[in-house]
Amino acid sequence: QPWPMISTVLLPGKQDTDFALQYPEKIAHTSILGLNNHYIDLCGPQFGRFVLSQTGLWERTKGLAHIAISPATGIKSWQKLTSAKMSKDRMFTPKAIIDHSFPQVKAVFKILANPSSYPILILNKWGSEMVSLIVSMTMLLLHVDRQSIYLDYAQTYQASSGVRQQRLEELRASCYPDDWAEPLPDYVNALEQHLETKHGGIEQYLLTLGLSRSEVQSIKAILLSGSRLSEKNGWLIDV
User: Fold this and answer.
1) What confidence score (pLDDT) does residue 217 get?
2) Whole-angstrom distance, CA of residue 65 vs CA of residue 73
3) How far apart are CA 129 and CA 151, in angstroms?
4) Position 232 confidence tier, pLDDT thresholds 50, 70, 90
5) How confident is the model at residue 3 (pLDDT cuts 50, 70, 90)?
6) 98 in helix, strand or coil?
7) Strands 28-32 vs 35-39: parallel, antiparallel or unpaired
8) pLDDT for 90-116, tens place per residue?
9) Which carries the bigger pLDDT value, residue 209 or residue 32?
């Protein structure tokens, strides 16, 4: 979940209402018992603006009016509307994050490029969609074979089968189809193709985000020196 919400209004020179955790230089960070916690919401403001642009003027006007009249029900209605649009394409969210959440993705990979960050645990509510995106992109950077990446991705869904019913209930409440609780067969190929055709590949994409070549090389050097990622006991842990 995107928390803690730290408003940038409290930061020098910032007067907007976005949250500090959305930007690489202002990642919400805490340290508990020697564990460094970084809170990064991949679906940040840029992602939100893109999703908003995918709705028509009438839908946006109607949605804003509903929110103004009844904030609680209006927000829920708006979330259902956007969910219905995003649910038409399983790759909509991963592609939109790659294309629009530059500050957030950069923040994640800058942490991965820092040797002092390791070992790293990457997680979110269900431990799949957002986590799988980051781990799969990292494995593509390491030139792991596509079958191993897919098996790692699919294993995440198998390991979380105990909470499948809760996940189904949440998907249904948000207007998503039931098959979203299962791995997408073409996920890795679709992800790699998007990175290649739109961004020139994963390495060029990371450079476009603003990472230096030395940082990209650092990620490779750190992770390739450990156990194979597909064994789940290397430096990078997918939960």
Assistant:
1) 96
2) 11
3) 15
4) very low
5) very low
6) helix
7) antiparallel
8) 899 999 999 999 988 998 999 999 998
9) 209
| Cα 128-129-132 angle, rounded to 5 deg | 70
Q: Residue 65: how many CA atoms within 13 Å on its side-chain side?
A: 6
Phi-psi domain of 236 (left: phi exceeds 0; alpha: psi -120 through 50; beta: other): beta
In sequence order, the β-bridge partners of residue 32 are: 35
Q: How far apart are CA 8 and CA 10, in angstroms?
A: 5
Q: How far is CA 162 from the centre of its chain?
A: 23
pLDDT at 159 over 70: yes
Largest CA distance in the chain: 57
Buried b (16+ CB within 10 A) or exposed e, 98-137: bbbbbbbbbbbbbbbbeeeeeebebebebbbbbbbbbbbb
